[in-house]
Design a protein that fits this description.
The chain is an all-alpha fold and 57 residues long. The chain has a domain of 27 residues. 70% of the residues lie in helices and 0% in strands. It has two helices and no strands. The chain is flat. The N and C termini lie far apart (41 Å).
């Protein structure tokens, strides 16, 4: 796997995570529309989990 450019070494964690995801999509030749659909599912799942945690607190 290609490594990220050094100028991202000090980037915030969420930026490095996004870069890793983009690299995975590109390296595995994932169709952009399919990737966006998957990201929507993941986002909805994470939002639901955060909402549940907020309700518990």
């Amino acid at each position: 796997m290609s490594s990220k450019p050094d100028h991202f070494a000090n980037a915030p964690y969420h930026v490095r995570l996004a870069i890793d995801l983009i690299m995975q999509f590109e390296q595995n030749q994932i169709d952009e529309k399919e990737a966006l659909q998957a990201i929507d599912i993941v986002r909805n799942d994470l939002v639901n989990k955060l909402n549940q945690k907020d309700q518990e607190n």
